[in-house]
Amino acid sequence: MGQLDNQPDNGENREQQAADLLQSMTESIEGIETLRHSLMTQFTQEIEQLQQEKAQLSEEIKTLHDQRQQHLTQPPALTSDIAPAFANQLQDLLSQQLQQLAQSSERLSIDQTVGNHQQTIQELVASLDNTLRTTFRTLQQDLNSYQSSMSQQLSQMYSLQEQAEVILETLVNRLKAEIPPPSSTFEPRSQIPPAAPNPLTLPAPDQDGSSPRSNQGEIVRSPAESPLPVVPPTQFQRRPQKQSTGKQWVGLVLVLLSLLAIAFENVFVNIIFNATAIVGFPVGAWLPSPYGGFWMPTLGNTLLILWSRMLVVVPLMAILSRGFYRGVWRDIQQVLRSRNWGLFGTLFCSGFFLFLSKVLLYWGLGIIAPGVAVIIFFIYPIVLLLLSDRFNRWSHFIPFAMVIAGFVLTTLPSGSGELSQFGVTLASGAAIAFALHLMLMQNLAKQLHPMPILLLNLAIVLIFSALGVMISFPASWGVVFAPSLSSNLVISGLVLGGVTLISYVCNTMGIARSGAASASVLGATLPILTALLAWILIQSRLTVPQVVGMVLVTLGVAALTIVRSCYPRSRGAGE
Question: Which residue in 151, 245, 505, 526 has its CB near the most CB atoms, within 10 A?
Answer without folding.
Answer: 526
